[in-house]
């Protein structure tokens, strides 16, 4: 167990203007009793709507914020009290906050970080080469950070966070604002990191594609509470997300036709394309019944949409 | 037109009314410096037999505390956001509006000065009055003349800062200019000590050849009635002349800047 | 010991990177160094404009006033060099960038001092120290071994004192973002206060600043010790030797305040 949190809480005092001069103070719990355990080598997706408390949790795990209550251990250490010791054992990428030296070439940042984290020369070179190969850093290693594109910078940030070989990597919105290619580069890099299994990764994201491609385990947080902790499939099962069959037909769809175990959700393209949502029956049975009833030209079965599930989840909670 | 001006003044006033912490912090700092300068000048005067360069003790007290209050009103140490807008290129939007930005900025700044007058001018003055004996003007005329001179000081100081802001069109980085301005506008305007303490040739040069005394020394001298009403009127007149000259300079520099903008396309 | 040495070396590297970044804008840098030296020189000239009125300040003659002013200048400019830009903490807190200091295995406070280090302050600090040496040479000092040691330690303790003030003032940003100017009352106000002999001030204001806040220990008391003069205000001579102790206390208070501030950090801006 590399991360454990019990009853983790963070309260903020907010002042709100009431009328012209008076101000009222409120206590808001950004994180309100979060329990979380992460085993070594896991890749955990930590998701939730804006203001749900994702970043706040991450900042408490990394020692940036002091918890208002509860217990946290990361690598067996209490983050705030042992901040600098812990810092050597974790890597952090906070989406919009650069770890790099703005006016210096990327490479200078790397070599400074080597000294800051006191990484032996050999280890540093090996890790840098590995990251560089996977992320394609070579073309912009000598460019000052301020001239890098967001995608290039994020690749640099990822490398910077991994050069000291951290046990845990915390990523706060690592794909936010990136172009498609950079997103793919970051994702395949993380998949590779996960496969090697020696780094635990905790990832917050708004990008549902990140979750589908990367995370076996999902923790969903809303209003400071954990509302789901399990696999993506469990999330689907819990919220009864349903698979969809889209069929292209040679002849128009006969009006009023029904199939057992499926609901017709739309008929389009001169009634030659029909969309069915599975409702209890297995996909095979429905496809067989479909093939008997109409003449099929093409057919596809679509997995449930994570976006759909998560948005339903948020709605349920609020 | 009058409605536009009123709206701009109100906007400047309101904008600064939202900076509560900063207003409090500024008034606090001005007050601490008030004690500091007041004691220093009084000590020098005491050693010199009660008066310093013709200022009596109570005159020095009024001089220092009114100066601490006026510093925030004329606001010589905070640059207009014009320079920043020039740097980012946002200034183009200002120049394209049907109203000359010189006037827009002026009215907004007068609104700001109005807010400063109610808060940052009053606060150090009240504290100063509790701790020291102020000089009370003999002639009733000193009050309206002080108000007039303060208004002129606000306008002159605005024009100076506007001109500095415009230099950003050519310099891009105006930190150096700002640094010199902050020091010179402090020392040469009479903030640290009355200019009469300086050798005659120097104080005369400052009065005749620079706008700095118009910023603080002018209204302060009127408030402590240095010279008669006649001299006070003369001081106001010199402030007005500086105001006009600086506004002409602003117009000239601005038209050059616009031409540069048109030629170079920003 | 080796640990401390290694840590220092790491900070040194980060500092050098910082200087390298700033040195990219060479002309503007040189202008700023020169400009701040001129302004600093004029600041000191201000003291002597007032001195010129009667040929004395607070009962002290020219070389004596120069010694106190120079002590204040040396302490302030060196303290300013070390920590003068720490008020930029405000920007780091407002933008949430302070996060990135906290996730590194280094002291956040030293990192702040290092990354906000402004090369342009170097000229002023050199100027302050040179002025101090000149003042020591021209002043009428009855030299003893104790005084020599004291003369070396005092500008350092003055610098520690002012650096503590800068850091303490910057720390306020963890609670009130917009109130940076309050700190100016004590940092720049403190410089002005210490540039003149404390005998010039009166009432509770003098007691508060000279003894309560400790500003008297930057230039006034050390000046008296070096000159071998008793305090006209009547404090025992032993107290006047306490400058280094006061600096240590100031540093401890600033450090505790900083720690509390960091715990209070809210990391907004994301």
TrEMBL record, chain A:
One of its GO terms (molecular function) is ATP binding. InterPro entries: AAA+_ATPase (IPR003593), ABC_transporter-like_ATP-bd (IPR003439), ABC_transporter_ATP-binding (IPR050763), DrrA1/2-like_C (IPR025302), P-loop_NTPase (IPR027417). The keyword Transport applies. It is found in: Cell membrane. Pfam families: ABC_tran (PF00005), DrrA1-3_C (PF13732). It is a peripheral membrane protein. It comes from the Bacteria. Keywords: Antibiotic resistance, ATP-binding, Nucleotide-binding, Transport. Residues 16-248 form the ABC transporter domain. PROSITE patterns: ABC_TRANSPORTER_2. The keyword Lipoprotein does not apply. This is ABC-2 type transport system ATP-binding protein. The lineage of its organism: Bacteria, Bacillati, Actinomycetota, Actinomycetes, Pseudonocardiales.
TrEMBL record, chain B:
It holds the Pfam family ABC2_membrane_6. InterPro entries: ABC-2_transporter-like (IPR010390). It comes from the Bacteria. The chain crosses the membrane at residues 24-48, 60-80, 115-135, 141-164, 176-197, 232-250. Keywords: Membrane, Transmembrane, Transmembrane helix. The keyword Transmembrane helix applies. The keyword Transmembrane helix applies. This is ABC-2 type transport system permease protein.
TrEMBL record, chain C:
It holds the Pfam family ABC2_membrane_6. It comes from the Bacteria. Signal peptide: none annotated. The keyword Transmembrane helix applies. The keyword Ligase does not apply. It comes from Actinokineospora diospyrosa. The chain crosses the membrane at residues 30-53, 65-84, 125-143, 150-177, 208-227, 239-260. This is ABC-2 type transport system permease protein. Keywords: Membrane, Transmembrane, Transmembrane helix.
């Amino acid at each position: 167990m590399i991360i454990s949190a019990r009853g983790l809480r963070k309260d903020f005092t907010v002042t709100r203007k009431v009328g012209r001069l008076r101000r009222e103070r409120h206590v808001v719990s950004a994180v309100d009793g979060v329990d979380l355990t992460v085993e070594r080598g896991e890749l955990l997706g930590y998701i939730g709507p804006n203001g749900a408390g994702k970043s706040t949790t991450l900042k408490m795990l990394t020692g940036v914020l002091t918890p208002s209550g509860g217990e946290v251990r990361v690598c067996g250490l209490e983050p705030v009290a042992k901040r600098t010791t812990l810092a050597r054992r974790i890597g952090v990428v906070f989406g919009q906050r650069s770890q790099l030296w703005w006016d210096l070439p990327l490479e200078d940042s790397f070599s400074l970080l080597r000294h800051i984290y006191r990484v032996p020369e050999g280890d540093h070179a090996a890790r840098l080469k590995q990251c560089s190969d996977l992320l394609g850093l070579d073309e912009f290693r000598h460019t000052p950070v301020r001239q890098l594109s967001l995608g290039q910078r994020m690749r640099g940030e990822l490398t910077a966070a991994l050069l000291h070989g951290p046990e845990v990597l915390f990523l706060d919105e690592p794909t936010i604002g990136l172009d498609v290619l950079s997103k793919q580069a970051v994702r395949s890099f993380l998949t590779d990191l996960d496969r090697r299994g020696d780094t635990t990764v905790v990832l917050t994201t708004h990008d549902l594609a990140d979750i589908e491609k990367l995370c076996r385990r999902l923790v969903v947080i809303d209003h400071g509470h954990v509302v789901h902790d399990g696999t993506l499939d469990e999330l689907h099962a819990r919220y009864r997300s349903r698979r969809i069959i889209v069929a292209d037909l040679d002849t128009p769809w006969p009006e009023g036709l029904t199939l057992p175990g499926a609901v017709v959700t739309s008929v389009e393209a001169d009634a030659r394309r029909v969309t069915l949502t599975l409702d209890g029956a297995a996909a095979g049975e429905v496809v067989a019944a479909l093939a008997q009833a109409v003449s099929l030209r093409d057919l596809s079965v679509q997995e449930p949409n994570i976006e759909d599930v998560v948005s339903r989840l948020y709605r349920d909670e609020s | 037109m009058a409605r536009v001006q009123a709206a701009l003044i109100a906007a400047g006033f309101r904008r600064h009314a939202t900076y509560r912490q900063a207003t409090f912090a500024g008034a606090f700092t001005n007050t601490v410096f008030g004690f500091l300068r007041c004691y220093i000048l009084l000590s020098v005067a005491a050693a010199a037999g009660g008066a310093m360069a013709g200022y009596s003790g109570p005159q020095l007290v009024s001089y220092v505390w009114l100066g601490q209050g006026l510093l925030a009103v004329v606001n010589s140490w905070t640059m207009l956001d014009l320079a920043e807008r020039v740097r980012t290129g946002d200034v183009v939007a200002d120049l394209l509006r049907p109203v000359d930005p010189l006037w827009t900025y002026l009215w907004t700044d007068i609104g700001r000065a109005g807010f400063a007058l109610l808060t940052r001018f009053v606060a150090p003055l009240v504290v100063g009055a509790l701790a020291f004996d102020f000089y009370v003007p003999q002639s009733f005329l000193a009050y309206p003349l002080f108000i007039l001179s303060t208004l002129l000081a606000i306008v002159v100081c605005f024009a100076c800062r506007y001109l500095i802001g415009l230099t950003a069109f050519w310099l891009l980085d105006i930190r150096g200019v700002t640094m010199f301005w902050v020091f010179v506008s402090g020392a040469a305007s009479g903030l640290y000590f009355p200019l009469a303490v300086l050798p005659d040739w120097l104080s005369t040069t400052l009065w005749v050849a620079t706008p700095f005394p118009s910023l603080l020394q002018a209204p302060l001298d009127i408030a402590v009635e240095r010279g008669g009403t006649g001299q006070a009127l003369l001081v106001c007149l010199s402030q007005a002349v500086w105001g006009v000259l600086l506004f002409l300079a602003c117009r000239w520099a601005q038209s050059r800047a616009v031409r540069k903008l048109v030629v170079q396309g920003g | 010991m080796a640990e401390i040495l290694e840590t220092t070396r790491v900070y040194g590297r980060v500092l050098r990177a910082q200087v390298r970044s700033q040195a990219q804008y060479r002309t503007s840098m040189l202008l700023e160094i020169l400009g701040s030296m001129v302004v600093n020189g004029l600041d000191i000239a201000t003291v002597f404009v007032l001195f010129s009125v009667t040929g004395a300040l607070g009962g002290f003659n020219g070389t004596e006033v120069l010694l106190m002013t120079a002590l204040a200048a040396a302490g302030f400019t060196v303290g300013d060099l070390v920590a003068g830009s720490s008020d930029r903490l405000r920007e780091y807190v407002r933008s949430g960038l302070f996060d990135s200091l906290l996730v590194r295995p280094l002291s956040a406070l030293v990192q702040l001092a290092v990354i906000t280090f402004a090369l342009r302050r170097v000229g002023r600090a050199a100027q302050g120290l040179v002025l101090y040496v000149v003042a020591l040479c021209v002043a009428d000092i009855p030299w003893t071994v104790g005084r020599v040691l004291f003369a070396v330690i005092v500008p350092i303790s003055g610098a520690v004192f002012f650096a503590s003030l800068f850091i303490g003032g910057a720390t306020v940003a963890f609670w009130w973002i917009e109130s940076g100017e309050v700190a100016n009352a004590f940092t720049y106000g403190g410089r002005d206060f210490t540039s003149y002999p404390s005998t010039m001030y009166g009432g509770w204001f003098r007691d508060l600043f000279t003894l309560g806040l400790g500003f008297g220990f930057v230039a006034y008391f050390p000046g008296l010790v070096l000159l071998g003069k008793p305090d006209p205000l009547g404090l025992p001579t032993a107290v006047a030797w306490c400058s280094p102790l006061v600096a240590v206390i100031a540093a401890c208070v600033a450090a505790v305040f900083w720690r509390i501030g960091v715990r209070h950090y809210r990391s907004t801006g994301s």
